[in-house]
Design a protein that fits this description.
Protein name: Bifunctional chorismate mutase/prephenate dehydratase
Helix content: 40-55%
Number of helices: 12
Organism: Geomonas diazotrophica
Distance between the termini: 46 Å
Number of domains: 4
CATH class of the largest domain: Alpha Beta
Shape: globular
CATH topology of the largest domain: D-Maltodextrin-Binding Protein, domain 2
CATH superfamily of the largest domain: Periplasmic binding protein-like II
GO molecular function: prephenate dehydratase activity
Subcellular location: Cytoplasm
Structural class: alpha/beta
Bound molecules: ligand ISJ
Pfam families: ACT, CM_2, PDT
Order of helices and strands: HHHEHEHEEHEEEHHEHEHEEEHEEHE
């Protein structure tokens, strides 16, 4: 009896707090709508990622607990996502179909109130943004086990879209099937990337079972939903959508398997104070060229976090380099270094400056 009374009293107090939270959420939504009205008058962009970043950072630092620090971001992401949708839902294209890791990355970045639309391929995501059908696009660009996804990098040769943000997602692969029984598996379906990321586990645990490449992990889950003798490697989320059982969780060879996604848009993102810049440039294959290329950055103490080279398909022995560095293109040192770089290159293209992702 005593317990019942205590619980009832505490729940009453929780209800009162929830009422206050709701009142504050509405007060906040009205302010966001006023901001929206000012922006409409001035024709400025409603979505401002640098401001959102500032909000997350300020609240993370101000949180006294015990509400968990990681949850603060998730809660506010949904508040901001829903506030933005009051004005108009933010349209975001991603590499589909639904339930792919790009879908999870888009949900993680834009929240559940954004209007997310699946596209068939990486070029189709770029096209949707270029044509204005979507405001942003989300595509994978590299994985900690398998390296760069060259298809995405190659898109920047032709496209004028800019990188507006990066999203880091911990990718965990699940072996899924209808029966959930190991001994029923006669074939394993997945996208080539997850198959490669689970290569060792598959060789040890299913050595004689054929592996079949398909266009997405979602397609693999769909096939397996109809075939009791097959298994798919897909996300945990796919298991709930396609009603599949988990044969084995987390079968990736490398723990801490992260995939990095890029958010592309038509404009350059504003400076947030902790940014990265991505560049692409081409040079002729000649002695000392790498040294000359890197000097403008070393001289100014600019940290380079990544350098990748790819052969330029149209011309033999010429290379395209992709470079990620710390700082925003509007920082004087970064601007000057890029200017210097352009004197020793055939061409330089700034792919975007964007807030560094937090893990
Ligand atoms: C309200 C604004 O517009 C949008 C909504 C935000 C919010 O809900 O806090 C933050 C940034 C913008 O994406 C703003 O720019 O301040």
């Amino acid at each position: 009896m005593k317990e019942k009374q205590t619980l009832a009293k505490l729940r009453q107090e929780i209800d009162a707090v929830d009422d206050r939270i709701l009142e504050l959420l509405n007060e906040r939504a009205k302010l966001v709508m006023q901001v929206g009205a000012v922006k409409t008058e001035n024709r400025s962009d409603f979505h401002v990622p640098s401001r959102e970043r500032e909000i997350y950072e300020r609240l993370a630092a101000a949180n006294p607990g015990p509400f968990p620090a990681e949850a603060v971001r998730g809660v506010f992401r949904e508040i901001i996502s829903a506030s933005l949708a009051l004005e108009k839902p933010l349209k975001v294209a991603f590499l589909g179909p639904n339930a792919t890791f790009s879908h999870l990355a888009a949900m993680q970045h834009f929240g559940l109130s954004a209007s997310l639309s699946p596209e068939r391929s990486i070029p189709a995501v770029f096209e949707a943004v270029e044509k204005g059908e979507a405001y942003y696009g989300v595509v994978p660009v590299e994985n900690t086990t398998e390296g760069m996804i060259s298809h995405t990098l190659d898109m920047f040769m032709e496209s004028e879209l800019k990188i507006n943000a990066e999203v880091l997602l911990e990718v965990s692969h699940f072996l899924l099937s209808r029966t959930g029984r190991f001994e029923d598996i006669k074939k394993v379906y997945s996208h080539p990337q997850p198959l490669a990321q689970c290569r060792k586990w598959l060789a040890e645990n299913l050595p004689n079972v054929p592996l079949v490449d398909v266009a997405s992990t979602t397609l693999a889950a769909q096939i397996v939903a109809e075939d009791y003798t097959a298994a798919a490697i897909a996300s945990e989320y796919a298991s709930s959508i396609y009603n599949l059982k988990i044969v084995k969780a987390r079968i990736e060879d490398q723990v801490n398997n992260f995939t990095r996604f890029l958010v592309v848009g038509r404009k350059m993102a504003d400076r947030s104070g902790d940014d990265k810049t991505s560049l692409m440039f081409s040079v002729r294959d000649e002695p000392g060229i790498l040294h000359r290329m890197l000097e403008p950055f070393a001289k100014r103490g600019i940290n380079l976090s990544k350098i990748e080279s790819r052969p330029l398909k149209k011309k033999a022995w010429e290379y395209i380099f992709y470079l990620d560095l710390s700082g925003h293109i509007s920082d004087p040192a970064v601007g000057e270094a890029v200017q210097d770089l352009s004197t020793c290159c055939q061409f330089v293209k700034v792919l975007g400056s964007y807030p560094r992702a937090r893990q």
